[in-house]
Design brief:
22% of the residues are buried. A hairpin with a 2-residue loop joins β1 and β2. A three-stranded mixed β-sheet has the order 1-2-3. It has three helices and three strands. The chain is of the alpha+beta class and 89 residues long.
Length: 89
């Protein structure tokens, strides 16, 4: 059983972050509801790879368009695994 199947079994209303399937880290908890948990670092890495963006461009896009998006209690969570500067060259 995949992580999407698991989360839908726990919370049929859980939402996904479109385009970030490779960044799913696991299942988190938001106010007593199971929601998908994403790695912010992997989201940024995925944006860099998929769009041929620099770290700064991917970070800007993610922090302005993805991370702050809240569409209710079933919204996924994003967790930072590393220091923001880890991808900077």
């Amino acid at each position: 059983m995949g992580i999407i199947d698991q989360i839908l079994e726990l919370n049929p209303d859980a939402l996904t972050a479109d385009g970030y399937d490779r960044a799913i880290k696991g299942i988190g908890n938001r106010d007593g509801k199971s929601v998908l948990l994403y790695s912010s670092d992997k989201c940024i890495q995925q944006l860099m790879e998929d769009n041929d963006w620099t770290y700064e461009d991917a970070l800007d896009f993610f922090t302005f368009n993805t991370e702050p998006a809240y569409v209710g209690e079933n919204t996924p969570l994003f967790e930072w695994d590393s220091e923001v500067n880890d991808y900077n060259d």
